[in-house]
């Protein structure tokens, strides 16, 4: 009788782990340095070598950030939560619905329309800013949160990603069996498709939330100078002026980064699971 031995680390695997730890430290250092500067005074920014030990001024710096009446940083955080949440929920619904239609429904022009959707991915967002601003102006939305939310309700990437996942995750036989049983298209989408694509929904939701939270250009165009900016626009206001207090700017950046870290920590496993399932099925 032979006893199976647990696989031992080889020199190659140990070097791999060491390399990954170094990359992790290298990637995390800017976040740590941002935290260090946000806890110190203004002289901590220019110290050589860089300050590595946190100070005791964090609460003072945060108080300054949240009490500046010309920045409205607290309103920016609330508005970012609203914009990111609404955009994420809308994309999950519309992109999964469109992906289901492209993957499992038969209609005239389906392939040509899908090619058109994919081709829109090659167009930089900057080229559409002027036309989009004129359109939102004609609708009377300029300077409002609706103007920031509306362009992100559905994206070509989300439709393409959900379509590709549904093709592999939902067998045609399962859809046909549901039709034979008398299920409507809405029932098939709700009872057959949605349970099978939860990992993909988690991945798309996390990517959408992070991208929307970090978006700067379009919210800056729409909300610059208003009393209800997003957190990124509020951070740009903190960094503007003839003399920039970097301890204040990095304190605001620290607060604006914390929600992303929480979301990524809570949903990191779902991202890995969704990517691995998509890789296996493809």
Automatic annotation (TrEMBL):
Superkingdom of origin: Bacteria
BP GO terms, sorted = transmembrane transport
Domain (ABC transmembrane type-1) ranges: 77-267
Q: How does it sit in the membrane?
A: Multi-pass membrane protein
Q: Where in the cell is it found?
A: Cell membrane
Q: What is this protein called?
A: Sugar ABC transporter permease
Extract the PROSITE patterns matched here.
Answer: ABC_TM1
One GO cellular component assignment for this chain's record is: plasma membrane
Q: Which Pfam families does its entry note? A: BPD_transp_1
Its main subcellular localisation, reduced to a broad class, is membrane
Gene3D superfamilies reported for this sequence? MetI-like
Protein family per UniProt: Belongs to the binding-protein-dependent transport system permease family.
Instruction: Give yes or no: UniProt keyword DNA damage.
Output: no
What organism is recorded for this protein? Answer: Planosporangium mesophilum
Membrane spanning residue stretches: 15-35, 71-100, 112-135, 141-161, 192-213, 245-266
Q: Does the keyword Cell membrane apply?
A: yes
Key words of the record: Cell membrane, Membrane, Transmembrane, Transmembrane helix, Transport
